[in-house]
Amino acid sequence: MNQAVFKGTVFKPELRVAKSGMAVLKFRLSYYQGKGKDGKAAYGSIDVTAFDKLAQAWDGKLQDRDKVIVIGRLMMDKWEKDGQKHYKHGMIADTIGKEMNLFASSANSAPGGQYITDEEVPF
User: Fold this and answer.
1) Cα gap 13→27, rounded to integer Å
2) Distance of CA 10 to the CA centre of its chain
3) Between 106 and 75, where is the model more confident?
4) 38-66 confidence digits (pLDDT tens)
5) Burial 33-50 (b: 16+ CB within 10 A, else e)
């Protein structure tokens, strides 16, 4: 079974309606990959697509820089341009959820509180 779970930051969420009438939500998800060889934080990104009811459910609820967890299936797009073959990984979302911050310091903090990295957790 092809199933992937990504936790990251949403960029450029956009809902479109296909000619068939099906809702299609697309966004880029940036995720932390750990530290690179130079010791600096390394990030990756993947394009996420949600269809139909899932896309409609999140219409207008996802903003740039929202922290989310996406469960879905990896897929590979391939195309040819100017005689060159190109490949790109993407993700078809089955579930999308906003990341909860259990370490928020007070009820007066911004929604979701401040996020901490795995390195800051004391265990």
Assistant:
1) 4
2) 5
3) 75
4) 989 989 999 999 999 999 999 999 999 99
5) eeeeeeeeeeeeebebbb
Any idea what the CATH number is for the domain that residue 68 is in? 2.40.50.140
Phi, psi of 29 (to 5 degrees): -115, 120
| CB distance 65 to 9 below 8 Å | yes
Domain count, the chain: 1
Average pLDDT on 101-114 reads: 50
CA 100 to CA 113: how far, in whole Å? 9
Who has greater pLDDT, 113 or 11?
11
Helical segments of the chain, H only: 52-58
What is 42-56 written as a DSSP string?
Answer: EEEEEEEEEEHHHHH
Query: For residue 37, what are the domain limits?
Result: 4-120
Mean pLDDT, the chain, rounded, equals 85
